[in-house]
Amino acid sequence: MSDRIGSWIHRRGWLVLAMLGAALLVVASASAHIERASYWPDPAPDTSMHPPAGGHVPATRSLFSALRKSPPGATRVVCQGRVPSPRRVRKLRRRFRSARRSHASSGRIERLRRKLKTAMRKYRWGVRRNVSIRRLRRAIKKARTRGFKFRPSDKTRALTRRRGRRLQRFNELLLARCRYHQIQPAATRTRNNDRIVIMPGVYTEPTARAKPDLDPACKKYEILNDRGQSAALSYAYQYHCPNAQNLVAIIGRRPGRGRDPKQPRVDRHGIPNLGPCIRCNVQLEGSGPSPDAVVVDAGRVASGNHGPIRHDKHVGIRADRTDGFVLRNVTVRHAGEHDIYILEADGYRAERFKTYYAGEYGVLTFVEDHGLIQDCDSAGHGDSALYPGSSAGTGRQTIEKRRRYSQELRRCDMHHSAAGFSGTDGNAVWVHDNDFYDNALGSPRTSSRRPGIRAIHRTRTWSRRTTSIRTTSIRTTSTPT
After folding, report:
1. Is the backbone of residue 215 left (phi > 0), alpha (psi -120 to 50) or beta?
2. 354-411: per-residue pLDDT in tens?
3. Are residues 241 and 307 both part of a single domain?
4. Distance between CA 383 and CA 357 in Å, rounded?
């Protein structure tokens, strides 16, 4: 037997070397960014701003309220293609109304009427030619004739003619307010209570892609993580070099005035060296009829919603210490590590989104509290589709007087990945009414490095051909260690 094995290795030595080389390459790429030691946020709301940030799952603001001038916050619009200017139309409209009020001659009023009509026709032609508007019109037509779904197992939703027209008219108003053609510049200018509205299109963020990976300018911000590994990317690293790792980064707070602990604290309650909010209560949303209309792509665009990835950035959208963060109605794909990454935030909501083909996780939320993920589709990932990791221990381990769930996941499809769901250190997480199917592991995975974590599964198989599971309820609760 040993002779046979030796002969096989001799004949297939090139194959063994190739496999070892590939394994080393995977390890090297996976360890390109060592994550920092993380801490649970304070569950109390931050009252230093108004309205307070955190302390609860944030509410969703309607898309159609994005252009209201009433507080709180401003709206920044991101679009693609040339934006026609409405200035001439506005100028001629003012002159025409002024002429009518001053009882000008009929000849002058008629000339102004013709000029205004011509200017409006040219402006409308420019609007129709805009890339985002053309993509929107195709999306509306498809949603009206064929319907759309937030996830494959969801019911088909129809877009009525009336709502389609209203959505198109509102996007035309958004276009007039568009000042950005990439998402990151809008995110950089965003402040507390602001909104970022992304009009239909495929956003590759060429400026962010051009930023070097592991930027030498931020090497001084590398720290020691909880495994004793050096070169971990600190929060200050993300603050000063937001696009070294991320395609789009929303950094919620300034670094504190003190210093991060040289050795990670054993007690993970409370974020050390926490600075003031600068981008809390931020809402990032697409303006299309469904998540398919707005795509954030961190890799190979030609792959569509499939592979290969060929990533340029390791994270698609990162929200770091952004208390009160809301993400909705977008598709994120082809990140080298995680399509969506929400870290050290108190209060977040991610809904009506899709994530495809990330190297590790479709959605990674880490050390979170007051979180909600709902109405989503996630597939094709190297590890788990959804991963609420190390969530706040608000069960029996909570520092509060009452027990509660720190995060909730519902109405999501997790499929065609290595694992549909992972809950490592998933304290006090409620997962219910989701569909897991066609994953390598075949069923959700919950585990913890801590003793006393208990998970309750109530599932039923709904497909004989595949290892498909509809999960009625998964509740993870923490008991005293």
Report:
1. beta
2. 999 999 999 999 999 999 999 999 999 999 999 999 998 888 777 777 889 999 999 9
3. yes
4. 10
